[in-house]
């Protein structure tokens, strides 16, 4: 039996230990409803938020602490085959990197399930059997909601000599201003992890400042940041996860500029567009199976009556399962809702939904 893959969440940002997203929560909840053994781990999680944003190959203090506070045995009732951790701001980058490097080592997928990592699941000597641990994917990007939280120093253009060893040097060879610090940092993390993807990036026309009643970041600034991140994804040939809310006009205009330099794969997460929008996006980003994917998050999409029709238009071969949660303790129930909804939508057994969408995640993320 193949396990589901959560293709989009933010559990590195939430109040619960991220490990809870991967496992059956009943393993950790006692009869009194409390969580056993997670207090120190949560404290370590919060402490980790203050760590430096510089890429590092050494084990962080967060991972050293959390691996000591979880007992030394692997958790062996994994619920997910893996998940993609979506950054929203440069402050997320070190945390996502650390979790991807160390958290999977604490979880063991049971012998009656398998996670297809590229080996032959029928071969006991395959990599899939030997590793038998969940796959975490690091995603680095700046979300349109958090663009306004970048500091002046984050926006500081970098000197040309600082670009000499950068992929961005080719893109910016004759352009001014040179790329900002936050984009250079993002590139550094992507280069450090060849399996990392670009996300979460995009546009949002409905995220307003409660005081000014204006968009938290102007659409002009959002488009500029999106274009820069799409260029970086193309230069590094990395897939992208795209956020799009009430902005399909500016989004289509932006994507049309990238017809000849589109990232290799595009994933429209928590997709809220109409049935007709699917064909428009496929025309811009690629009609071939394996080029464009769509996800629908229960917490966002399942309140809409159009979601089932849009999902059927997308088709099972372009579908990814996602929860879009920050709180890891909510992932289990949300993923079950997602599987059940899609099984009803496509009139298929839940195991078929899980198998196809997990294969789709493997194809999109390249693991």
Please, could you describe this protein's structure?
The protein is an alpha/beta fold and 367 residues long. The protein is 36% helix and 11% strand. The protein contains 13 helices and eight strands. An eight-stranded parallel beta sheet has the order 1-2-3-4-5-6-7-8. α8 runs parallel beside α9 (275-285). It is globular. The protein starts with a strand and ends with a helix.
List keywords for this structure.
alpha/beta, 11% strand, 8 strands, 367 residues, single chain, eight-stranded parallel beta sheet
Q: Which residue ranges are poorly predicted, with pLDDT under 50 across at least 5 consecutive positions? A: 30-73, 114-130
Overall 3D form: globular
Count the beta strands: 8
Strand order of the largest sheet: 1-2-3-4-5-6-7-8
Task: Write a brief structural summary.
The chain is an alpha/beta fold and about 375 residues long. It has 13 helices and eight strands.
Write the layout of secondary structure elements.
Elements: E1 5-9, H1 39-48, H2 61-69, E2 82-86, H3 93-102, H4 127-131, E3 135-140, H5 168-171, H6 181-192, E4 197-204, H7 219-236, E5 240-245, H8 248-256, E6 266-268, H9 275-285, E7 292-296, H10 298-301, H11 307-314, E8 319-321, H12 331-346, H13 350-365
Parallel strand pairs: 1-2, 2-3, 3-4, 4-5, 5-6, 6-7, 7-8
């Amino acid at each position: 039996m193949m396990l589901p893959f959560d293709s989009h969440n933010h559990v590195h940002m939430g109040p619960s230990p991220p490990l809870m997203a991967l496992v059956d929560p009943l393993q950790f909840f006692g009869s009194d409803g409390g969580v056993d053994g997670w207090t120190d781990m949560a404290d370590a999680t919060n402490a980790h938020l203050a760590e430096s944003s510089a890429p590092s190959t050494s084990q962080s203090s967060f991972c050293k602490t959390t691996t000591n506070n979880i007992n030394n045995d692997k958790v062996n009732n994994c619920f997910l085959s893996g998940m993609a951790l979506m950054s929203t701001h440069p402050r997320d980058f070190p945390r996502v990197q650390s979790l991807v490097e160390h958290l999977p080592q604490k979880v063991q997928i049971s012998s009656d399930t398998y996670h297809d990592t590229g080996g032959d699941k029928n071969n006991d000597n395959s990599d899939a059997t030997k590793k038998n641990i969940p796959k975490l994917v690091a995603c680095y990007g700046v979300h349109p909601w958090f663009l306004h939280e970048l500091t002046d120093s984050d926006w500081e253009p970098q000197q040309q000599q600082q670009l000499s060893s950068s992929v961005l040097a080719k893109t910016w060879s004759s352009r001014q201003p040179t790329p900002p610090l936050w984009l250079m940092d993002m590139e550094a993390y992507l280069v450090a992890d060849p399996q990392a993807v670009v996300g979460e990036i995009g546009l949002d026309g409905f995220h307003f400042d409660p005081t000014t009643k204006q968009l938290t970041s102007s659409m002009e600034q959002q488009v500029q940041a999106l274009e820069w991140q799409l260029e970086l994804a193309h230069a590094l040939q990395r897939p992208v996860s795209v956020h799009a809310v009430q902005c399909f006009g500016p989004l289509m205009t932006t994507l049309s500029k990238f017809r000849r330099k589109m990232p290799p794969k595009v994933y429209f997460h928590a997709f809220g567009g109409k049935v007709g929008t699917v064909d428009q996006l496929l025309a811009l980003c690629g009609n071939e199976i394996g080029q464009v994917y769509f996800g629908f998050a229960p917490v966002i999409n399942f309140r809409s009556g159009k979601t089932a029709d849009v999902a059927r238009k997308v088709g099972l071969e372009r579908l990814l399962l996602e929860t879009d949660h920050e709180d890891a303790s909510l992932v289990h129930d949300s993923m079950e809702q997602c599987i059940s909804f899609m099984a009803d939508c496509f009139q298929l057994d839940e195991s078929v939904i899980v198998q196809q969408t997990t294969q789709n995640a493997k194809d999109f993320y390249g693991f």
